[in-house]
Design brief:
The complex is a heterodimer of chains A (about 425) and B (about 350).
Chain A (H helix, E strand, L loop, with lengths): L14 H9 L5 H5 L3 H8 L3 H15 L4 E2 H7 L13 H9 L13 E2 L4 H6 L4 E2 L3 E5 L6 H13 L10 E6 L6 H11 L1 H4 L10 H14 E4 L4 H9 L2 H6 L2 E7 L1 H8 L5 H22 L2 E6 L1 E4 L46 E4 L2 H7 L2 E7 L14 E7 L6 E8 L2 E10 L7 H6 L9
Parallel strand pairs in A: 4-8, 4-11, 5-6, 5-7, 7-8
Antiparallel strand pairs in A: 2-3, 9-10, 11-12, 12-13, 13-14
Helix pairs in contact in A: 3-4, 8-9, 12-15, 15-16
Chain B lengths: L7 H5 L10 H9 L5 H6 L3 H8 L3 H11 L14 H10 L8 H6 L9 E6 L5 H11 L12 E6 L6 H21 L4 H8 L3 H6 L1 E5 L3 H18 L1 E7 L2 H6 L4 H22 L2 E6 L1 E5 L6 E5 L2 H4 L5 E8 L2 E8 L6 E8 L2 E3 L10
Parallel strand pairs in B: 1-5, 1-8, 2-3, 2-4, 4-5
Antiparallel strand pairs in B: 6-7, 8-9, 9-10, 10-11
Helix pairs in contact in B: 4-5, 8-9, 12-14
The chains are: A alpha/beta (about 425), B alpha/beta (about 350).
Keywords (chain B): ATP-binding, DNA damage, DNA repair, Nucleotide-binding, Nucleus
GO cellular component, one term (chain B): Rad51B-Rad51C-Rad51D-XRCC2 complex
Main location (chain B): nucleus
């Protein structure tokens, strides 16, 4: 941690100044940098130029090394491509897993391909590594299925387009199922894990051996509080390196947060969530992991003080255009200090609030058919997965189904996504509009 | 005196207590009867000062430097007349956002020499706007651009090199078409020859900060860095992230935010470069309606930090920028959209004003 860097390890500080700093209880870089040079003059009894020199040398040590965007692109194995060339899923897969395929140097997969062709295409390769992606959806929409599908994709060998890496699955709701994982693997990659029939299927012994390799790569943790997650994440670095982990799943963040903190403790909850996000981001970036977090939805029922209802309440799919349209009416929600996003009557919105929403880099939403009223999300109606926030790509949506092979996206049936149609923005949209800014 | 001029008398009257001196030195001076800067200046030189106040020669020499108000920005250094300012302001080029509606709202684009803040809800396109500006700032002089480099301070990890490449390519394509439209302009065709997406990406310098301390360190290091690299744009995306997690002590947070703002402002005005900061939004209970609404994060006192504040939000399915605060321009709205090539007008792609 740069902030905790001991001043003794800062180059360019002379002994005299260093002893003065220690005498005034300046121990780390943070202590120096959070004060102005004028403060240092007063506290350390030194001249202004000396104080400025101290700040400069400390800053020099702590300052992260700059990198050009080009260098970053090369590292990520990108190189060419981009610029509107539509990559097929297999192309994306090749660029993601092909080490050194880009501009040389150290490279790592820039994406974890989801193997859902249309979604991979929309996300320009898959779930990005090095940042946090989030999946929002009502109960029964297939969030855990999606996570399991991703886990299989990350742990599968490179020969079939996997990342050949480890997976850490933080399961807060005891929903992880090893049987289901194996089933998805068998259906998704029959050439490796298949059970003997069909072309090129491996022998049963081989399949079983590969399956054992796959399942042993997935480590499941079941923390019971948010602070335990934070604690575990802080100590996880070594394990992440040793197991070559490529994917870190937290399923689900909302469950614990909502169970553990009541309405009176929102501030502590948001603070803790922020800290977790910060650690997740650091680990994602330093170890080039894909971090995938699921989130629940919450219902806002107009005047009825949007109570933070359980996941089951997320069925009322708002009609696209109507939600949150009128500025005034959309702001009546007294409860929205909680999960954020003051919203209109009866709309569904992601839980955990705006602060958390800012923390995730990519956000996917699972929902019933757009404008489909009370779509029975759990009962096999049309389901849609939408990309509603991404630094990389435009809004997009696709129909999907949950089958034996996990989540399956039908690439031909793309769904138009506009801001109001996505339940996440619906509630946020228009709040600035017309209000007394 | 270096900085003589009209306000020298005012500086001379300053008490030694308001001058940045080490406390032990100051108390020695005071014991020797020195009260104001003028008293110190009246001595014949550092050696005499040292003798009178019982300082070492080195200390005395530093005191002399301080009371002369060198170039380090203490006290009132660098006051300018309005006519100078007028000349400077009109000489500044804007950085195009590539949405002509938004550019018009901003008086041509994002202005240099000041801090422009973008706030808005998640997914509205704040980062996209920043990446677009990193490309725009590199437009060669021949096309009326800055031909500058960009520094991108990323606290959230949302800078995607692949996305930057896309936008850079679109910008290069656009300039090529402008150049082709006026083939007689040799300056343009010369400039376009070396203007490739690759070169553009080479000129975006990324600092990834994982915590507040790193962010502060970057701010300390930036003044030297921007001079070395012809930087014309500094983006901080986002200011809010670390400040919203790492602080228990709100008073400390306010102090550090103020310090940071002051650094950025100094950076902007001394180097005539544009500083763009990104802020998040937070939900605030509305005392009037009993409901809640979204407001920019980091509080009221921070709201004064930026020169220009732009709020991005959804309005009727369209991304809308609302100019909330500006010292020069009237409030107003502009619609924009995020395309594969970057920020554009809602209908069709118009050329930025040139």
């Amino acid at each position: 941690m740069a902030a905790k860097r001991s001043l003794a390890r800062v180059a360019g500080l002379d002994v005299d100044v260093l002893s003065r700093l220690e005498g005034h209880n300046f121990r780390t870089a943070e202590d120096v940098l959070t004060r102005s040079s004028l403060d240092l003059v007063e506290l350390l009894d030194v001249s202004l130029p000396t104080a400025e020199r101290v700040v400069a040398s400390v800053a020099k040590c702590v300052c992260p090394k700059p990198q050009t965007a080009m260098a970053l692109l090369r590292q990520r194995g990108g190189g060419g491509g981009g610029g509107g060339t539509a990559r097929s899923s297999s192309g994306a897969r090749a660029s993601a897993s092909g080490d050194g395929g880009g501009g040389g140097g150290a490279s790592w997969p820039a994406f974890l391909p989801t193997h859902l062709a249309a979604l991979d295409l929309a996300l320009k390769g898959g779930v990005p590594t090095g940042s946090i992606s989030e999946l929002v959806g009502p109960a029964g929409a297939g969030k855990t299925q999606f996570c399991l599908t991703l886990a299989v994709a990350a742990a599968a060998p490179k020969s079939v387009g996997g990342l050949d890496g480890g997976v850490v699955f933080i399961d807060t709701e005891q929903k992880f199922s090893g049987v289901r994982l194996a089933e998805i693997a068998r259906a998704k990659f029959p050439s490796v894990y298949g059970d003997g029939d069909g072309d090129g299927a491996p022998s049963e012994a081989d399949a079983r051996a590969s399956l054992t390799t796959l399942t042993s790569r997935v480590l499941v943790l079941t923390p019971s509080t948010l602070s335990e997650i934070l604690q575990r994440l802080n100590g996880l670095e070594e394990a992440l390196i040793d197991h070559g982990v490529r994917l870190l799943v937290v399923d689900s963040m909302a469950a614990l947060a909502r169970a553990e903190f009541g309405r009176g403790q929102l501030q502590q909850r948001q603070e803790l969530l922020g800290q977790i996000a910060s650690v997740l981001k650091q680990q994602a970036e330093r170890l080039h992991l894909a971090v995938f977090v699921t989130n629940q939805v919450t219902t806002r029922i107009g005047a009825a003080a949007g109570h933070d209802t359980g996941p089951g309440a997320g069925r009322e799919e708002g009609d696209g255009g109507g939600i949150g349209g009128g500025g005034g009416g959309a702001e009546r929600d007294a409860g929205s200090r909680d999960a954020g996003s003051g919203s209109g009557s009866g709309s569904v919105t992601a839980a955990l609030g705006t602060k958390w929403a800012h923390c995730v880099n990519t956000r996917l939403v699972l929902e019933g058919a757009a404008g489909g009223g009370d779509a029975d999300a759990a009962g096999g109606g049309t389901r849609v997965v939408k990309v509603v926030k991404s630094p990389r790509c435009a809004l997009a949506g696709f129909e999907y189904e949950v089958r034996a092979g996990g989540v399956v996206v039908d690439g031909d049936r793309a769904v138009r996504v506009d801001a109001s149609g996505s339940n996440v923005h619906a509630s946020i949209r228009g709040v600035f509009a017309g209000s007394a800014l | 005196m270096d900085n003589g001029g009209a306000n020298a008398w005012y500086k001379d009257a300053m008490q030694l207590t308001s001058v940045p001196l080490a406390p032990s030195v100051r108390s020695k001076l005071q014991r020797a009867g020195f009260v104001s800067v003028r008293d110190v200046k009246k001595t014949r030189g550092p050696v005499e000062l040292a003798l009178e106040a019982g300082l070492t020669n080195e200390e005395a020499s530093e005191v002399m430097k301080v009371v002369r108000f060198g170039v380090d920005g203490t006290a009132l250094a660098g006051a300018k007349s309005a006519s100078e300012l007028l000349r400077e302001e009109t000489g500044k080029l804007p950085i195009y956002t590539f949405s002509s509606e938004l550019d018009a709202l901003l008086g041509g684009g994002v202005a240099a020499g000041e801090i422009t803040e973008l706030c808005g809800c998640p997914g509205i396109g704040k980062t996209q706007m920043c990446v677009q500006l990193c490309a725009s700032v590199q437009i060669p002089h021949a096309f009326g651009g800055y031909d500058g480099e960009a520094v991108y301070v990323d606290t959230e990890g949302s800078f995607m090199a692949e996305r930057a490449e896309e936008i850079a390519e679109a910008t290069a394509r656009h300039l090529r078409s402008v150049s082709n439209a006026s083939p007689e302009d040799a300056g343009m065709s010369d400039a376009i020859a070396s203007f490739t997406a690759e070169r553009m990406l080479e000129r975006v310098h990324l600092f990834r900060c994982h915590e507040v301390t790193e962010l502060l360190a970057v701010l300390e290091a930036l003044p030297a860095y921007v001079k070395k690299h012809r930087v014309r744009l500094v983006v901080v995306d986002s200011v809010a992230f670390h400040f919203r997690q790492d602080f228990r002590d709100m008073a400390l947070r306010t102090t550090i935010l103020a310090k940071m703002t002051q650094r950025l402002q100094q950076l902007a005005s001394e180097n005539a470069l544009a500083v763009v900061t990104v802020n998040q939004v937070t939900v605030k209970p509305d005392p009037r309606g009993g409901g809640a609404r979204l407001v920019p994060a980091l509080g009221e006192s921070y709201a004064h930090a930026c020169t220009t504040r732009i709020i991005l939000s959804w309005e009727d399915d369209t991304r809308t920028a609302y100019l909330y605060k500006s010292p020069r321009l009237p409030q107003g709205r502009a619609r924009y959209t995020v395309t594969e090539g970057g920020i554009r007008d809602v209908r069709g792609t118009k050329r930025p004003a040139e």
